[in-house]
Amino acid sequence: MSIENFFNRDIVSIKDFSRQDLEFIFNYTDRVSALGQNKKSELGRGRTLGYIFYEPSTRTRMSFEAAMASLGGSSIGIFDSKSSSVEKGESLADTIRIMDLYSDVIVLRHPLDGSSRFAAELSENPLINAGSGSEEHPTQAMLDLYTILKEKGRIDGLSVGIVGDLKYGRTVYSLLYGLANYNVDIHLISPPTLTIRKESIYDIEKKKLKMYEHYELEDRVLTKLDVIYVTRIQRERFPDPQEYEKVKGTYTIDSNTLRKTKPDVSLMHPMPRMQEISHSVDNTKNAIYFKQAAYGKELRAALLALVLNENAV
Ligand code: NCD
Q1: 246 given a catalytic annotation
Q2: From CA 175, how far away is CA 165, in angstroms rounded?
Q3: What is the Cβ-side half-sphere exposure of residue 17, based on CA atoms within 13 angstroms?
Q4: Crossing angle of helices 115-122/92-102, nearest 10°?
Q5: CA 57, CA 42: separation in Å to the nearest integer?
Q6: 140: Cβ below 6 Å to ligand 1?
Q7: What is the pLDDT of residue 108?
Q8: Which of 109, 167, 170, 187 is catalytic?
């Protein structure tokens, strides 16, 4: 595996990345993070990142921008479609073609599944999927895996609980496909109406990934987990608002929950968090969701350096 494998590559789905690819990216993230500012800012100097966000974002967009700045590059983009020609009815295809003219790498978030694949085929420059529909968020999964690796020292052999909206949460699907490259036990914990969509994980490699489903955060499950990955109930993706009202406060992780877990359990969340994790646990050593967001910037800087440079350091 060499660095050329990533030059000009689209990052559309986590399914396109092997374990070897992921390990290369994680090692490369360590390397870029350790570089001095002078060396680091050679990796993106004079280059432009173009972002187009058709859905709200805080961390994803800001971390990409901050990552590009740390490489000496700059960013332009659209994050409020009301202030761009999207509001006038301009198509995704035309918007992508224009951004392709003005930038060296495109970062796209869009509500439709398949939007990034479509856009990647249109753009000459590499396209990075920053969240499409309810199926894919590949860079989030990479940063989630990187966080686990940094905090736990390994991914193989862990028990990972994934809690919350498993039906609509795209981070969950990308994370599951990412974890399928490792030897892990997965406990899926959701209300009965928000269980995982089986048709969206039909080709997951079942041999390595042992999956168990639960409706409650039962004590006997909590005691097994090394990582608890909590997700937001995706209100905007519910066809019926009343269904959202029924499930919105189903789980809350608080200090009572932490009394039943392994002492070193890691609490993760892609964020934004609603009431699923109580603020009262933010200062515990278990809460690593802010670190996770910080790792996100590092990992995205490494990805940008890889896709932009034929001979990166
Ligand atoms: C997630 C998303 O957009 O899917 N946000 C993120 O990128 N961290 C999660 C969410 O919105 O709940």
Answers
A1: no
A2: 13
A3: 28
A4: 50
A5: 28
A6: yes
A7: 98
A8: 109
Contact 155, 149 (CB under 8 A): yes
- Whether this model's pTM surpasses 0.85: yes
Taking the centre of ligand 1 as the mean of its atom positions, its distance from the CA of residue 134, in whole angstroms, is 10
pLDDT digits (tens, 9 = 90+) for 238-285: 999 999 999 998 999 999 999 999 999 999 999 999 999 999 999 999
* Residue among 79, 112, 137 to mutate when testing ligand 1 (max atoms within 8 A of CB): 137
Q: Is 197 a catalytic residue?
A: no
Identify the structural domains of the chain with CATH numbers, from first to last.
3-136+296-308 (3.40.50.1370), 138-293 (3.40.50.1370)
Does residue 130 register a pLDDT over 80?
A: yes
Give the count of beta carbons closer than 10 Å to the beta carbon of residue 66. Answer: 16
**Which of 142, 194, 271, 273 for mutating ligand 1's site (highest number of atoms within 8 Å of CB)?**
271
Q: Is 210 strand, coil or helix?
A: strand
**Distance (Å, rounded) from C-alpha 141 to C-alpha 123?**
23
Structure tokens that stand for 29 in this block? 């993230």
